[in-house]
Amino acid sequence: MEVREELKEIIERARAAAEAAGELPHGEYAPVQRLEIPKAKEFGDYSTNAAMQWARTAHKAPRAIAESIVKYIDAPLVSKMEIAGAGFINFFLAADTVYAELRNILSAGASYGDLPKDKKDKILVEYVSANPTGPLHIGHARGAAYGSALVNLLRAAGYDVYAEYYVNDAGSQIAHLAESVNARYLQLLGKDVDVPEDGYHGYDIVETAKSL
After folding, report:
1. Helix-, strand-, coil-residue percentages of the chain, each rounded to 5
2. Which is nearest to 14 in space by CA: 56, 74, 80, 88?
3. Of 22 and 129, which is predicted with more confidence?
């Protein structure tokens, strides 16, 4: 995004220089609207139709406008420019520009692309809370992946995020789980025992008792 914005400024400065030199008429030129990455590498790293965009204001053919713009561009960011078709300008970035960004990526490591930290907002994300008192299902897996990704994205966006992933492996729930498994275990041994009313009655409890 930084390269794109810098290139837009370079194009607009070149247009202003052409206007000051009298090669383009004075007028209200809109900011560069389109600066895209071509589908084919042979057309450069970026391409713009700014010359076509400014044709109505300049009252000139887009290709002539493009020639004037290219004439006034001299920036280390760009190694080569080509005018294509009716007036597209294709830009080839200097190798140093690409290598510098690679150095930034290697230096930043996993934090590359993260936005500055926002000290004001705090976000709490609770997700999954996988409960061992019942069988896991695909929703738990989906919730885990979705929740973890959401936390990572929010942190990368600069938010102060606290993630809560409850395992629920302690307390009264586990006590009821143990009582329920024990009751099923004793029933399998022929004992006349009832599962506690506040216990767990799912098929998984029976399967656990069988495995014991």
Report:
1. 50, 15, 40
2. 74
3. 22
